[in-house]
Write a structure and sequence with these properties.
The protein is α/β, with parallel strands linked by helices. It is 30% helix and 22% strand. It contains 18 helices and 27 strands. A ten-stranded mixed sheet has the order 4-22-5-21-20-6-9-11-10-19, sandwiched between helices. α6 packs parallel to α7 and α10 packs across α11. The radius of gyration is 28 Å and the shape is globular.
Length: 641
């Protein structure tokens, strides 16, 4: 059986393999100064293969760079053995009851850089929408401090661990000579990793202010390609901040697509309030004509909404329409499509919009109808009973952005989740569109609120004190994640009460997971470093404080099984059996597994079966193992750890 790696892929290795597959003739080997064989790309061959030159260091060209950019990229590519551990008691079921895992939503506590690495295998090309509200770098914001000074091996040794003070944050004052460098080192690797998770028709929305918007767009142009820039929304967030020259009323939401050609056009629903007329004496009364299509230049022939319509006069119009062919036929049959003026009727087909109708329009990039920062603070105060979070985004804003996209059965990720506004926004979206079934993944570093008090200003200090008081009353740890998880619980309860029957079936729960070091001991990764006689002193290659559930989730991450998959726990002959996503993955981590148990598992025909490498009861069972599976389920992929 194959042995699981129990660590993420090395991105640099994966990129090298892709290049080697594309241009095998450019791949060669050479020897370094120590006589070690190392992989090498033949530049001359590669240049001929792609018919392009390779720029040298002194070649004048446009580049976007900053100190330590190379090290930031190296950290992106470095693998991690960190994992996610499940915490059932801190989880909430889809109906709002605590201690349940029957939910499709996930809340992850941990450093988002490491979490993004951990999610690479499982959520590669699977996230439809990402919204983040990262530190704005105003001078008082806390910046995630990734240690770029350490060497590669040291980084791998501590990946996924927070520091001795319980966090990895530092303030970034404008007097710091590395003011922009530190922010870029923070944001670049996270956005680069996040891009891998987006679906081909997915998009990322990034809130930012004027301080770093230019640098943010340069980062995104490099990672996503400038041609995948979608738009920059300006949100009028309240009274704004003032200086000696002007008052700034807006913040920005920068949007990039994974592949803009695959991104469906966005529409927003509004009640029509135009001037209505009846130029053709329509028996239904006055109407206003609305667009039903994109012009030829904007049309995408690959779209399922690209088809031909014939007008009553015989003129054919072939382009990308805003609705399906089926819906178009219904509109025409109902007399709700105008083909231009009589008697020719040869104009571009347009919809007849009636008074009071709800219409779909292309959204404006100025957002002034989504509450303000102060309004969001007041809302959270009503939820918690006191002001517990500073400068939150209103749920209306994120809900509006999410409504632009088709998120049916999709997953939305927020890896700077803060007060978990995105989670509530998705729950509200599911009430508004019950067919959506949209899921969320929230990620947040457990920022220590006691430590935050030591650097708090006169505005934020009482807010942090309120948060600590609230957590004390709930007997919860003093960290930001607990505020975020409580917000989801409180908002879910409020939505159930507010919307009643309409919210009856929405999922208001979350699976609570926490980033931690690997479940495996060092010997698992480097057995050759240990003397054979020492193995007698090692109980096993799994850490003593790890449960079977911990092992299961690390296995799920390596095998690419989504963290929200249905999980059933049962017993066969007294052994604990995990069934994930029905029988896609079956795992048993107990010892003394006999022939009878193996046979029962094989009869379930799982796609994957995983167990410990010392689980087999005896040599006789080990000899029969392969034969049993070959008899009942020969296609099952068998793995051990």
């Amino acid at each position: 059986m194959d042995k699981l790696k129990m660590h993420s892929k090395n991105a640099a290795d994966e990129n090298y393999k892709k290049l080697a597959d594309l241009f095998p003739s450019a791949v060669t080997e050479t020897v370094d100064e120590n006589g070690k064989v190392i992989r090498t790309i033949d530049k001359e061959v590669l240049m001929k293969e792609i018919n392009a030159s390779v720029s040298e260091d002194n070649f004048e060209r446009y580049v976007f760079s900053w100190p330590e950019k190379t090290k930031a990229l190296n950290i992106v590519n470095a693998p991690t053995s960190a994992t996610l551990r499940p915490y059932l008691k801190e989880s909430t079921g889809r109906d709002g009851k605590g201690g349940s895992f029957d939910t499709n939503n996930v809340y992850i506590q941990g450093d988002n850089l490491e979490v993004l690495k951990v999610l690479q295998e499982t959520y590669l090309n699977k996230i439809k929408m990402i919204y983040i509200d990262p530190p704005y770098n105003t001078g008082n914001d806390f910046i995630y401090e990734d240690d770029y000074a350490q060497d590669y091996e040291e980084y791998l040794a501590i990946s996924g661990q927070i520091d001795k003070d319980g966090n990895k944050l530092k303030q970034n004052p404008e007097t710091n000579g590395r003011f922009h460098t530190d922010w870029l080192n923070m944001i670049y690797p996270r956005i680069k990793l996040a891009r891998n998770l987006l679906t081909d028709d997915g998009a990322i929305f990034i809130s930012i202010d004027e301080g770093e918007i230019e640098n943010l767009k340069k980062v995104c142009n490099e990672i996503f390609n400038e041609k995948n820039y979608v738009n920059t929304f300006m949100w009028l967030h309240g009274k704004g901040k003032k200086d000696s020259w002007s008052r700034t009323l807006q913040q920005y939401i920068v949007v990039y697509a994974k592949n803009k050609t695959m991104l469906e056009p966005w529409v927003e629903k509004k009640v029509c309030d135009y001037e209505f007329k009846n130029p053709d004496n329509d028996p239904k009364g006055p109407w206003f004509s609305g667009s039903l299509s994109f012009n030829e230049e904007r049309s995408n022939p690959e779209s399922e909404k690209y088809y031909t319509i014939k007008s009553p006069s015989g003129v054919e119009w072939t382009r990308q329409w805003m609705i399906s062919k089926e819906d178009m036929d219904k509109l025409i049959a109902a007399g709700d499509v105008s083909f231009g003026k009589a008697p020719k009727y040869d104009g571009v087909p347009r919809s007849k919009i009636r008074p009071g109708a709800t219409i779909e329009v292309i959204p404006n990039n100025i957002i002034d109808d989504c509450n303000t920062t102060r309004g969001a603070e007041n809302y959270l105060e009503s939820l918690f009973g006191s002001d517990c979070f500073s400068y939150p985004k209103p749920y209306e804003l994120i809900q509006k952005l999410a409504s632009f996209m088709d998120l049916k059965d999709a997953t939305v990720l927020d890896f700077f989740s803060g007060s978990a506004t995105t989670a509530e926004s998705i729950m509200r979206l599911n009430i508004e569109k019950p067919e959506s079934n949209t899921k969320f993944i929230m990620v947040q570093l457990p920022e220590n609120l006691d430590d935050a008090l030591t650097t708090a200003n006169n505005f934020t200090k009482p807010i942090i004190q309120n948060a600590i008081k609230y957590l004390d009353n709930k007997k919860l740890p003093h960290n930001l994640c607990e505020i975020g998880k409580e917000r989801i619980r409180l908002a879910g309860k409020k939505l159930k009460e507010e919307f009643g029957e309409k919210a009856k079936n929405i999922d208001i729960g979350f699976r609570s997971l926490k980033l931690d070091s690997t479940n495996m001991k060092d010997v698992y990764y480097s057995p050759t470093d240990y003397e054979p006689g020492l193995f007698d002193d090692l109980e096993y290659n799994i850490k003593e404080d790890r449960s079977n559930e911990d092992l299961l989730f690390q296995v799920m991450l390596e095998l690419g099984v989504p963290l929200d998959c249905k999980l059933d726990i049962s017993e066969i002959n007294g052994k604990q059996i995990f069934k994930v996503n029905k029988n896609f993955l079956i795992a048993c981590f107990d010892k003394e597994i006999d022939d009878k148990t193996i046979t029962e598992i094989a009869k379930m025909k799982p796609y994957y079966y995983v167990m410990k490498d010392n689980s087999i009861a005896n040599d006789s069972v080990a000899m029969n193992f392969e034969q049993i599976f070959n008899t009942y389920s020969p296609d099952t992929k068998r793995k051990v750890l």
